[in-house]
Predict the structure.
Amino acid sequence: MRRILSMHLIGRAMIWLLVITTLAMGTYPPETVAMLVPALPAAAESSTDSHRMADLQKIQTVLESKVVRQRLEDFGLSQEEINARLAALSDDQLHQFATDVDAIIPAGDGLGIVVVLLVIAILAVILMYLLNHRIVITKNGN
């Protein structure tokens, strides 16, 4: 009975802690800054440059893979030749190439999936511990 009562008190204390923390965070809003919007031609050029840089970064990430690098070396391409060919591509060609790379490797490197699975496993263990559940595996002897 005492254990149930103490768990109940811990639960209430956690709820009140969350309520107070949420109210404290809402009391002090983040600092905001206002600026004028740049002229449209400059914004379009900046947008194009940022898209080109993002596409280049995506392609460079794939090119850094050992398998891809080895395959390109088998074709006789050095890193300088690859960079020269990427620089010669137009914005549309570069974007198409980056889109094709995304289609080939849709899941990325898989690190995000591993992190999510670990977090779910840790939360399940914590929940089982808090609810006082135990898993016992026994071997049936014949």
Summary: The chain has six helices and no strands.
